[in-house]
């Protein structure tokens, strides 16, 4: 299960960590760090989890990590936005961005476009 937070016995998220790793085993997740996450991030992660297809396949050779604006390199993210990094066996890293509603964007360009259209960010041309 891809998620961010410790899994309790029924697979629900808790708020102990801001990053989680999944090493391809759908039944286990291990904390990558032990930092607290914001309420906005916790809410986004719950929405992401609720949108996942039941029985969705992660893949045996992937490791997934969720990161928020408290993590190094992601301070530019707005509160409530989350990045999912999927590490492939080949070494390639796929990044997916999630807004506070749990909608996924596959590129930074898409995120900037959404921010610009909503008036959150003004981009210079």
Percent in helix: 10-25%
Q: State mean pLDDT (0 to 100 scale).
A: 73
Instruction: Report on the biggest sheet.
Output: 6 strands, antiparallel
Low-confidence stretches: 1-34
Order of helices and strands: EEHEEEEH
- Envelope shape: globular
Protein name: MBD domain-containing protein
Keywords: DNA-binding, Nucleus, Transcription, Transcription regulation
Biased composition (Polar residues): 1-44
Region (Disordered): 1-54
Task: Write structural notes for this entry.
This is MBD domain-containing protein. Its main location: nucleus. It is found in: Nucleus. Keywords: DNA-binding, Nucleus, Transcription, Transcription regulation. Helices cover 18% and strands 21% of the residues. It has 125 residues and is of the alpha+beta class. A 6-stranded antiparallel β-sheet has the order 2-1-3-4-5-6. Strand 5 and strand 6 form a beta hairpin. The longest helix has 13 residues. The radius of gyration is 14 Å and the shape is globular. The N terminus is likely disordered.
What is the secondary structure topology, with strand pairs?
Layout: E1 20-22, E2 30-31, H1 39-51, E3 62-67, E4 82-88, E5 93-98, E6 104-105, H2 108-117
Antiparallel strand pairs: 1-2, 1-3, 3-4, 4-5, 5-6
